[in-house]
Amino acid sequence: MKNLMKLHTLLLMLFVSTALILGSCKDDDDDIVEGDKTELNALIAQAEAIAAAATTADYPQSAIDAFKATLQTIKDAAATKLTQTEINNLIVNLNNAMGTFNSQAYGYIDESLYLNAGWNFDEGTGTTATAFSSTAHVATFKKGWTTLLGASAELPVWVDGVKGKAIYLDNGAHLEVPYSPLFLPADITISAWIKNDVKGWENNVIVSQNYWWGYKFATQSAGKPLFTERINATTVQDFDAASGEVTPLVWTHVVVALNSTAKTLSFYIDGVNVQTYTELDGVGPLTRTLSFVDGPNTYTAQPFLIGSFANDDEIALHPDNFSWISNDNVGSFKGAIDELKIYNIALTDGQVSKLYNDEKP
Questions:
Q1: What is the pLDDT, as a whole number, of residue 328?
Q2: Which residue from 95, 158, 245, 258 has the highest number of Cβ atoms inside 10 Å of its Cβ?
Q3: Is 34 helix (H, G, I), strand (E, B) or coil?
Q4: Does 11 have pLDDT greater than 80?
């Protein structure tokens, strides 16, 4: 409602300003030094394309009508002789109208509020990837599991992604990001595009925070998305998407959304909810304390990992926790990852569907 009121207010202001512009043109048109409309005309063309594609499947009809009316008012004003200041004002108004209209789309996600971290991996060169979110977390390329893999341990490499570039991981390759509480919100959604090399790779970890003593998001040997969360000081719980599998060698959008208040956990594949668990299934609030003692082991906050659930420092510190690791079960990702996002809310079905449709190639 507030957004619609903003649009109607903007519309009224534009009608008034247009009348003033047209009136002044009649009186002193010859005295106006006309500005450059190149940017304005390009923006109008962009807005026209958005308006033409808008349907009631994506927006309320009232929002479509208000946006088209605002656009027409700006077009009428743009057809007159304008100073550069007047042109610049119309550009600002149209950008604001487009932003408001986009925010009214069904399933809209305000990433300025809810995106804690996001990487598109479009650098394509170098050994770091910087998040595009408001906090520019830097992920550094690392080798891992070197005690097991030795000289065959690898660094991540750049490959073509679902959009732009992506990272390819194998033989312990992963990225490390300095820990931040932003990686451990009360509610969390993890969204990523992945292309698994094989179906039967166990512990194909997409991201993790303190492995099972925080959370990890992976695919398991049957290709099903898997989420592990710590629900109290000594208990972790595994959940997998029993009715959904990821096809190897195909870019696939995978999402897990945990609502700690409602105690629900949902998995999505290519925008579709394939499994939801509730408190009856053991879902609990995400435990957010990473500094604690469990028997002989003292745990502290570890780096946020992309493509692995433990680095060499952690393996050396707690070797007993990793005695089960083998060459066929390394505990790191085997394949490519792109468009990784961490939200501080549990996205709804509609939001995940829109996210998938916005990001798919």
A1: 64
A2: 258
A3: coil
A4: no
Last residue of a domain, one of 58, 84, 103: 103
Is the pLDDT at 1 greater than 80? The verdict is: no
Residue 15, pLDDT > 80, answer: no
Tokens linked to 341: 């996002």
Q: Give me the domain span that covers residue 269.
A: 111-359
Residue type at 20 in one-letter notation: L
Return the DSSP state at 126: S
Place of tokens 């959904």: 244
Q: Find the angle CA(299)-CA(305)-CA(309) to the nearest 5 degrees.
A: 65
Burial of 92 (0-12, 13-18, 19+ CB in 10 A): exposed
Look up residue 293 and give its amino acid.
Answer: V
What's the one-letter identity of residue 148?
L
* Contacts of 80 by beta carbon, 8 Å cutoff, 6+ apart: 21, 22, 25
In tens, the pLDDT along 21-75 reads: 444 444 555 678 888 989 999 999 999 999 998 887 788 888 899 999 999 999 9
What is the residue-wise DSSP string for 187-200?
SEEEEEEEEES-S-
Strands 215-219 and 225-232, sheet pairing: antiparallel
